[in-house]
Design brief:
alpha/beta; Arc Repressor Mutant, subunit A; 2 domains; four-stranded parallel beta sheet; 7 strands; transferase; COMT_C; methyltransferase
Length: 250
Amino acid sequence: MQIMFTACELGVFDLLLESGDTLTSTAIAERLGTSRVGMERLLEACVGLKLLRMERKNNEGFYGNTDLANLCLAKSSPKSQYQYMKLYSELVYPSLQEGNNQIQSMFRTSEKDLFKAINSSKEEQQRFSNGMDDAWSLYGEEVMSAWDFSCFHVVCDLGGGSDALAKKYISLYPNSKVTIFDLPEVVERAKSLVSSEEQQIAFQSGDFFNDPVPEADLYILARILHAWDDEKCLTLLTKLHKACKPGTCP
């Protein structure tokens, strides 16, 4: 992970994508302003991880991106996972190495609740949101099109954060409206970033454990249940089961 993120942070994958051709380690180091020896070792490691390809010409190595690198690792790619890797590189992996409470280690706080820790500052909110947006840019459309949701016109995205998933949904099902239900501090930030032209996406503040959830034909819980124990998850799912309207979709 650290090798991949380092190459991404330095701009290796973007340089190779923009060049449209393979380059030597010396050329890459010069253009990026790095150590030649260090860059050569980094490139060789990336080849070993199948992030880069290498071919020899006149007994010299020339490096180029793999399809995976062009798609996910170049920061200029619309499906880039740079922010997602940044989140893991800066927060998740260091906390694993320390061996303490992960949430407290990740966010340098006494808070034990993951989402309260994430929302402890605007900077943490932004970092987490950027990472999640990257993830949805990669596979959001595939997830939303794996089943036919066209009969669900009123949708509630619980804990949706930004509008990344909602955008994918309405792009596939343009007759639908999505309400993102999240904590007040999350909604405040997200609303400031949404275009006024996106009238099919609305926001509602609240705590879905303690407050009534918006009425909807379909409730989406994407990548949030892992944050709580089974008892709390069962409480939330039972609440949503009671809120669901029977017979909405044939």
